[in-house]
């Protein structure tokens, strides 16, 4: 103040006999005019020619009203409290003052936090705020603020009888706490009040706005009805954080990728990297960049300078050309594998096309051609072709069905024909030797491979961690002969008793004893002394009976040790009818085991 004359000071002091005390959080200009009105003055300018800025007003109040330093600290001036860019003032402050009708009815005091756009609910009464007279809809002025409208003279204390959502009330409470306490709030990501208010404002805009368009607002959009919608949308996102924010990311990118983050994410990208570019909001960009690396199908490169170096370095997608170099394949091969590799196509306006795929799918690219597959499996190429024709090997690229010049068999399909030992028997013979010297037909080779895959035959090689390729698989000569004979049995109407013994894995004498006992039905060939067993009767015997020796093998014990432990009697055997081997009825064993349980 320029009034240095003691007489002038005394005169001014006499003008303020009534000196109301400020309320915590009261707006500075509103308090000043409250003091002036209490002493019959219309404005401060009529009393002196000093400046009317916040510093001069505080000095005036300290001298003329006798406010202490603590009382001065109770007064707020939002416009000067916002120390950021001028653009943030429009984002954070409302062009119209707001008030809680119930608070004003109790005491016509205007609080500073009511001027913020994020203040749409009075947490004291749990009701929405007003920013216009309920009768004439006129805005109110801080210089004339009372419980009476400054335009029509009606009461402005009529409450708004609308339900306030719980999530919105909770967010408003946290914002008020951050404002009053003046420090970072742990429930608001450790942001200060102004930072949290700015975050809530932009989250509301992202939730309510479209994919593209301007983020600029006019005076009408900064009104109470619009801010209520924005704050309600922001409270919904913050209540379900971070799932709701990730959902917002997914919705923002629900358009075809253009290989441009700014075009694909539109307003969301502009808010995260322009409007909220401060370090305090880095946690938002971390979530966004994690989502980009997990879901976005475009390619990151050096031009994405706004993203962190770690995000660019760990981006999992690559182009078809890059993948071809790493997989030792040609781009043409990989383009034919696009459906299986889940490659994404990006079409540019110029007509150029870019294909990208995830690095996690690169293992599916690794494969071999026909010659390499034959070498890996230790089989002739014609046998590989037979496996392909039978559907046992399914090539990813085939010259037969496409215009490709070479085969491509994935490593995954090839590894399906590597085996691990399932038994230990003497007299093993390798499959490639069987194919060469046993003269297996193409059909027999396919059936034998299917039997190995179904584990109907034991692989008797020495243990190997990497697996044994199909051509080097060793089989027991006895098992192989039995399999071959069993296959012949399935394709013929009857077999000899000797052949039946081979199929059952028993001695010929035991087979003849089973025939004599009537357990294995047989018939004599008309006009000949030969006795034969029908294939259906042989298969029925295998389904009905099981030998003690076979039971002992399956339970990894000896027949002698198992004999006294079985819960039922054998149907034939040395102690039953003098035959050389014990046989049990499978149904009796199952019934006895159920009874014991």
UniProtKB/TrEMBL annotation:
Transmembrane segments: none annotated. InterPro entries: HTH_17, TniQ. Residues 17-127 form the TniQ domain. Residues 496-543 form the Helix-turn-helix domain. It holds the Pfam family HTH_17. Signal peptide: none annotated. This is Helix-turn-helix domain-containing protein. It comes from Castellaniella ginsengisoli. The lineage of its organism: Bacteria, Pseudomonadati, Pseudomonadota, Betaproteobacteria, Burkholderiales.
